[in-house]
Write a structure and sequence with these properties.
Length: 124
């Protein structure tokens, strides 16, 4: 709470609402200056019990070459050619010092479709 108040005093460029909650909430001011769950600072009927320290699960991950960070498949239909397409997006964290060759295999058994796309993960 003290840190949030200090950050609010330092920040002069513009007001960051809400500066304080309504008095009926008996909450804390300047909650948007600290990365905590907002409901910890009270809400319409809840108490103000700001958490301290780490408030979510923590885990340690280790890998030698790369790690898949994000993966998404978006289907879309092109009316002018009457054909479905898949947009595949992925993001990797690559710690290898050398490029890593690989491939993406798309397999849709119900449609008897299988396609393989070669690729390369670059360091960095």
């Amino acid at each position: 709470i003290l840190y949030a108040a200090q950050q609010s005093k330092i920040h002069q460029a513009y007001k960051v609402p809400p500066e304080c909650p309504p008095p009926v909430q008996k909450g804390e001011c300047h909650v948007n200056f600290i990365r905590k769950e907002q409901c910890s600072f009270s809400w319409d009927w809840g108490p103000s019990f700001p958490t301290q320290g780490i408030w979510k699960d923590v885990r340690i991950e280790a890998y030698n070459l790369y790690h898949l960070v994000y993966f998404s498949v978006t289907p879309f239909y092109e009316r002018n050619i009457q054909q479905w397409h898949l947009q595949i997006e992925s993001r990797f964290d690559v710690v290898s010092k050398k490029p890593i060759a690989g491939f993406v295999a798309v397999n849709i058994p119900e449609l008897r479709i299988q396609q393989v796309f070669p690729g390369q993960l670059l360091p960095g």
